[in-house]
Amino acid sequence: MKTALGVRRPWRQGQIKAAMAALTLLVVAALAATPALAAPAFKVAPRTLGFGKASPGATKTFTVTSSSGGILLVTASSSSPSFSVSPSQGVIGSGQPQTFTVTFTPTKKGPQSGKITVSGGNTTINVMARGNAQGTATATPTSTPTATPTSTPTATPTGTPTGTPTGTPTGTPTATATATPGPGSGLGSSRLDLFRQVW
Fold first, then answer.
1. How far is 100 from 119, CA to CA, in rounded Å?
2. Could you report the per-residue pLDDT of 114-132, keeping only the tens digit for each?
3. Long-range CB contact pairs, 25-30, < 8 A, 24+
4. Is the dihedral angle over the CA atoms 53, 56, 62, 64 positive or is it negative?
5. Residue 193: enclosing H or E segment and its boundaries?
């Protein structure tokens, strides 16, 4: 501290203690005003899944347990198509863990990695999955292919029709007869005979 003549004098021991006490009160007040960090609602084990050299369909599991003793709904999802997780959610509680299964479903050969995210309450934990694919997953068709005919089949009837036609003809037949007298007969001959009788 400065005197009237401007000369500094060393702090006294009592002043130092008072300053330290004031600083301590400030720190305590600041901590009291800061909300406490919430404890994780659950824990996951293991946090890393190593598949090594594996074929499609290989599986690994991890378990989620409650760390607060309460009942909690947790969900799990994968960030990579090379790893699928099931079930997608589960309920955990005191003494009631939930086991999740991760299946290796690589879309290409070689090293693969993915992240499984587990969330619930105020907690999110990531599980890392790694594997070296020795093959690729085979896709299952979701529909049955159908064929459309490109032409219409035609058929020609064969065989001889059988049966006797039945029915009665209707109508009256008409005809006109015409006669021409021949020589030596008819009217000319009759007149000759009459002439002879008279004479």
1. 13
2. 999 999 988 999 999 999 9
3. none
4. positive
5. helix 187-198
